Q: What sequence folds into this?
């Protein structure tokens, strides 16, 4: 790990600053939007716009990089993010905010693709797994740190919009001044969704459901917390607890994943999350209870993303693993675009607790479908499964493909033993 940090510290530092800015602005939108008088449904559209932009950016960035190169794409998109963040408090209109959020989502998707391709190029076969681990740790640390910054600021002021803009701008320096060579940009030809579904129906359905779940947790969590009357510090702690839960449970779940029938683990995690969210829907607990629920949700929903990818790999030939990454991110992105809108609609009908109802419904659907799939196909023996690689739902297709490449390398090493 120390060798990875020594060789890639500039990229990791830059990504930490980017994630701090992204984590801060994601929560800030819900808090400031409520102060501006936006309805819950209007805020759900603003939230959805980010994920729509992210989906567009994941498709458009490879073309832009091939046309003008990594450095120009990174600098241009990061500049757009920085400018858009400053513009939010200038006009209090939900449609203006929606347009800005599309720009921010597209920009962050693009800078992730660019930076992650640099990081993957800097990794070797020997340290790719440790590099991915360090990168995912930095991502979660950055998002949690962003919540801490918001807790110390005034969401009604202008400064809290300047801070993420500055963080994004400052992130240019360590990344663009890094001595790492600019890589040749190559991505695997995407596998068709039909072939993906035939390989693992559970993974494709699960990815769509998880897209909606993660978008609701990250994007609408602050809206929910604000609507029930939590203060800024409590809202930040609530959102931060989701990612703390992910950090705490990601690796124990990964260890179990390599030793159990992954479908049982998927079903169990979805059931735990579903029951917890349903209890939160029925019971108005205190703030400590909400922190516990957020911790559980982060510890179940986020690892499910990596778990579904690992399960798919159990049914793919190694030369098809990298090609699957683009389709997985696309399906997850489609779910993420629709998730906040449905959440906002339910919150308008059922009140703030509709937030938990949406999450409970999607996790229940995943439990039911996982149970059904267990009756359709025998499990792969644990000693024949591939490795679990930690990947967050915030990752771009490049990071998912890098994780797939590492899984391929591990499978090749196992075959050669």
A:
């Amino acid at each position: 790990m120390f060798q990875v940090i020594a060789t890639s510290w500039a990229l990791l530092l830059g990504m930490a600053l980017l994630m701090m800015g992204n984590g801060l602005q994601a929560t800030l939108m819900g808090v400031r939007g409520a102060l501006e008088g936006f309805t819950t449904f209007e805020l759900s559209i603003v939230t959805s716009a980010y994920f729509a932009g992210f989906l567009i950016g994941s498709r458009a960035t490879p073309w832009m990089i091939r046309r003008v190169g990594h450095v120009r794409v990174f600098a241009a998109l990061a500049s757009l993010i920085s400018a858009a963040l400053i513009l939010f408090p200038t006009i209090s209109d939900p449609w203006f905010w929606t347009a800005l959020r599309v720009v921010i989502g597209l920009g962050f998707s693009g800078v992730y693709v660019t930076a992650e391709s640099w990081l993957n190029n800097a990794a070797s076969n020997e340290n790719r797994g440790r590099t991915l681990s360090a990168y995912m740790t930095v991502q979660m640390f950055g998002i949690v740190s962003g919540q801490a910054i918001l807790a110390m600021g005034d969401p009604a002021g202008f400064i809290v919009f300047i801070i993420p803009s500055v963080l994004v701008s400052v992130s240019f320096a360590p990344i663009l001044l890094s001595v790492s060579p600019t890589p040749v940009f190559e991505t695997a030809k995407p596998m068709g969704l039909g072939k993906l579904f035939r390989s693992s129906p559970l993974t494709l359905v699960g990815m769509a459901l998880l897209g909606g779940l993660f978008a609701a947790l990250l994007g609408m969590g602050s809206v929910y917390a604000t609507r029930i009357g939590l203060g800024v510090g409590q809202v930040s702690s609530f959102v931060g607890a989701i990612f703390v839960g992910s950090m705490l449970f990601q690796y124990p779940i990964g260890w179990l994943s390599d030793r159990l029938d992954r479908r049982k683990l998927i079903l169990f995690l979805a059931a735990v999350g579903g029951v917890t969210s349903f209890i939160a829907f029925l019971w108005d607990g205190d703030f400590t209870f909400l922190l516990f629920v957020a911790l559980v949700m982060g510890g179940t929903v986020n690892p499910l993303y990596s778990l579904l990818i690992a399960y798919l790999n159990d049914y793919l030939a190694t030369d098809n693993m990298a090609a699957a990454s683009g389709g997985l991110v696309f399906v997850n992105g489609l779910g993420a675009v629709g998730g906040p809108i449905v959440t906002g609609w339910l919150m308008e009908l059922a009140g703030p607790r509709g937030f938990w109802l949406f999450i409970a419904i999607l996790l229940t659907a995943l439990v039911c479908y996982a149970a059904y799939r267990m009756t359709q196909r025998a499990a792969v023996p644990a000693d024949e499964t591939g490795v679990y690689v930690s990947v967050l739902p915030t990752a771009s297709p490049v990071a998912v493909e890098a994780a797939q490449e590492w899984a391929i390398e591990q499978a090749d090493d196992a075959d050669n033993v």
The chain has a mean pLDDT of 83. The CA atoms of residues 215 and 336 lie 5 Å apart. The chain has 14 helices and no strands.
